[in-house]
Write a structure and sequence with these properties.
175 residues, mainly alpha, Arp2/3 complex 21 kDa subunit ARPC3, two-stranded antiparallel ribbon, globular
Length: 175
C-alpha cells in the first residue's frame, strides 16, 4: 500500500519528468532531459511506483496539461508521430525496475539498456505508422536515423547520470 512518503515521492518524480520534458532542443524527435527523469524515477522508486509516476505524467498530458516537450499537451501531442516514445516509457519502467534488482551496476546497466530499447522499439514503430499515414512510406533505417541513432549517446549519458544521482539519493530517502 502507499503511504504519504511514497505518494509525495511519486508526485515529485512526476513533476521532475514534466520539468525535464520542457528542457528541449528541437529535432524530428526533440532532445529532452526526459530520459534522465524517467530512469531516475525508476531507479529511485522502483518499477511500480515509477510506472505510476510516468502514467500520471502521461495522463496529465492526455487531458491537455502542457507537460510534453514544447509545452504541448492533449491527445494530439500524444497520438502524434513522437507520442509512441512517451507511451514507450510505460514499458521502460517495469523492464528496468524489475531487472535492476538490488541496483548494483552489473544489473542496472543492462536493465536500463533493455528499458531504453523497449522505448525505442515502441516509439519507432509508432513513428513509422503515424508518419506513413500522414506523409508517406518511410523505411526502417530512415526512421532509426531520425529517431534513434542521434539519441543513443545522449541517452546513455542521461542514463548514467540518472543512476549516479538516484544511487546517491536513495540512502538519504530511506531515513
Amino acid at each position: 500500500m502507499f503511504n504519504i512518503k511514497s505518494l509525495a515521492r511519486m508526485a515529485i518524480c512526476t513533476a521532475l519528468i514534466v520539468v525535464c520534458s520542457w528542457l528541449t532542443v528541437p529535432f524530428t524527435v526533440p532532445f529532452t532531459m526526459q530520459t534522465f527523469a524517467i530512469f531516475f524515477t525508476v531507479c529511485l522508486l522502483g518499477p511500480w511506483q515509477g510506472m505510476i509516476s510516468i502514467l500520471v505524467y502521461i495522463l496529465l498530458g492526455a487531458v491537455g496539461v502542457p507537460v510534453f516537450s514544447g509545452f504541448r499537451g492533449g491527445l494530439d501531442a500524444l497520438l502524434g508521430p513522437t507520442g509512441g516514445y512517451i507511451l514507450g516509457f510505460l514499458a521502460t519502467a517495469p523492464i528496468t525496475g524489475l531487472m535492476m534488482g538490488d541496483g548494483k551496476l552489473r544489473r542496472l546497466i543492462p536493465a536500463m539498456v533493455l528499458g531504453l530499447l523497449a522505448c525505442y522499439v515502441f516509439g519507432t514503430a509508432w513513428f513509422m505508422v503515424v508518419y506513413t499515414r500522414n506523409t508517406g512510406a518511410i523505411g526502417l533505417w530512415t526512421a532509426l536515423g531520425w529517431c534513434v541513432f542521434p539519441f543513443i549517446l545522449p541517452d546513455a549519458a542521461k542514463m548514467a547520470l540518472a543512476a549516479l544521482v538516484a544511487r546517491r539519493l536513495k540512502p538519504i530517502l530511506r531515513k
